[in-house]
């Protein structure tokens, strides 16, 4: 049986590496906006499986990777489960009001 | 001499046609962010020629069209000059905080 490969470490951009353009681009997608809304509503870490989005698991993983690279979401691996949370404090520090404005949108 | 064709009317989306996703996508570009920052700083209408962006006039026109279609910018034709302004009140009504958060960004 094939040995399970070690998962690559999860890399997150530091505060000074996060750009507003990158954040806007990451948020400008209906699936990723849905993920961000769910993480904001949960106000806690959510495993990928707990996210309700109309796409396959590998597509969720792809979108979470884009959100992580932009500095919107943080990921944490625990055993075989990856937990995701919104970097709300970091985003509020860098771009005060932006995230709340996005979350306030009715559509 | 060729007769100058009448310019097509400038169409703007109504408030209920503006989506957060469309606004985010329109803002997620360095040139368009630059235009929005200048319109916000001017706090008045600016003719296309008054905008300082490192692209050709036709590219500015293209970016302004994207910003208009998303509901971010309003255009007004006066003779041969097109004036542009930020739809700040409309955006603040729909997505309170979003625009200020974007404008607060240092990068």
From TrEMBL, chains A, B:
DNA-binding in keyword set: yes
Secretion signal span: none
Annotated ranges, domain HTH arsR-type: 12-106
Gene Ontology MF terms: DNA binding; DNA-binding transcription factor activity
Spans through the membrane: none
Keyword list, A-Z: DNA-binding, Transcription, Transcription regulation
Pfam families: HTH_20
Matches recorded under InterPro entries: ArsR-like_HTH (IPR011991), HTH_ArsR_DNA-bd_dom (IPR001845), HTH_MetalResp_TranReg (IPR051081), WH-like_DNA-bd_sf (IPR036388), WH_DNA-bd_sf (IPR036390)
Protein name in the entry: Metalloregulator ArsR/SmtB family transcription factor
Organism from which the protein derives: Amycolatopsis iheyensis
């Amino acid at each position: 049986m094939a040995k399970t490969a070690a998962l690559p470490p999860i890399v997150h951009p530091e505060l000074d590496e996060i750009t507003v353009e990158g954040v806007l681009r990451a948020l400008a997608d209906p699936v990723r906006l849905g993920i961000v809304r769910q993480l904001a509503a949960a106000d806690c870490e959510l495993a990928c499986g707990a996210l309700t989005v109309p796409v396959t698991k590998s597509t969720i993983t792809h979108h979470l990777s884009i959100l992580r690279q932009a500095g919107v979401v943080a990921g944490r691996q625990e055993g075989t489960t990856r937990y995701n949370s919104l970097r709300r404090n970091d985003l509020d520090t860098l771009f005060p009001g932006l995230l709340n404005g996005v979350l306030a949108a009715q559509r």
